[in-house]
Amino acid sequence: MENMDGMDGVDKVDDMDGMDLSGRPASSMSFMPSTPSMSSMSSTPSMPSAEVLLLAWGNLLRRDDGVGWAVARAVRESDISDQIKVIEAQQLTPELAEDIQRSRRVIFVDAGTEGAPGSVRCQRVEPTRDEAAALTHHCAPATLLALAKELYGAAPEATVVEIVGEDFGVGEGLSERVRRAIPEALERIRSLARIAATR
């Protein structure tokens, strides 16, 4: 497992909740052919509270950068779809803080750029306020958690599930190694949902 420098608010752990979170090209992220089209993407209104919230984000037109959307689709079609509320977005925005504070656990799903392509990693995230991010409309997971705690007085346990990408070029469709990693990511998410249900 690799160290990720500059990731404020992220604690590395050795069990299922631990993962290496890496940055990615600002315009990166892609998708599978069966994924929703760009025309279907829109801001998601606040939803009722849920035990587990899954937030997947990325650029559908940057190949492997859209793997978060593919994982979200796999969750919707799985046996745990009734246990997890799923929200997909092109980027994390402050408005999502309201959905976060309604949940007992949040699972962020994203593509990574450091490590072996197709590897799946998990990492716990702690609330950390980023003043620079406050000036933009794009938030990191730790910043969103801090915002939820600041505005609503609640920040649930949170984990980032990351699949390391291989191809972030312009285009649609995931690389083969990244596509094959989706079932493993789903199993990690299933385990995290079980943990939340027992607490």
Characterization of the model:
This protein is α/β, with parallel strands linked by helices and 199 residues long. The protein has one domain: Rossmann fold. It has four helices and six strands, in the order ββαβαββαβα. The chain has helices at 67-76, 97-101, 141-152, 176-197, and strands at residues 10-11, 50-57, 84-89, 103-112, 120-125, 157-164. Strands 1-5-6-4-2-3 form a six-stranded mixed beta sheet. β2, α1 and β3 (84-89) form a beta-alpha-beta unit. α1 packs across α4 (176-197). The two termini are 27 Å apart.
Quickly list its features.
about 20% strand; alpha/beta; 4 helices; Rossmann fold; 6 strands; six-stranded mixed β-sheet; disordered N terminus; about 200 residues
Termini Cα gap: 27 Å
The domain count comes to: 1
Strand order of the largest sheet: 1-5-6-4-2-3
Tally of extended strands? 6
Report the CATH topology name.
Rossmann fold
SSE series:
EEHEHEEHEH
Rounded mean pLDDT is: 80
CATH class: Alpha Beta
Radius of gyration: 15 Å
CATH superfamily: HybD-like
Biggest sheet record: 6 strands, mixed
Identify the overall geometry. Answer: globular
CATH architecture: 3-Layer(aba) Sandwich
The count of helical stretches stands at: 4
Q: What class do helices, strands and sheet pairing give?
A: alpha/beta
Q: Beta-strand percentage?
A: 15-25%
Portion in helices: 10-25%
Low-confidence stretches: 1-8, 10-23, 25-48
Offer a concise description of the structure:
The protein is of the alpha/beta class and 199 residues long. The chain has helices at residues 67-76, 97-101, 141-152, 176-197, and strands at residues 10-11, 50-57, 84-89, 103-112, 120-125, 157-164.
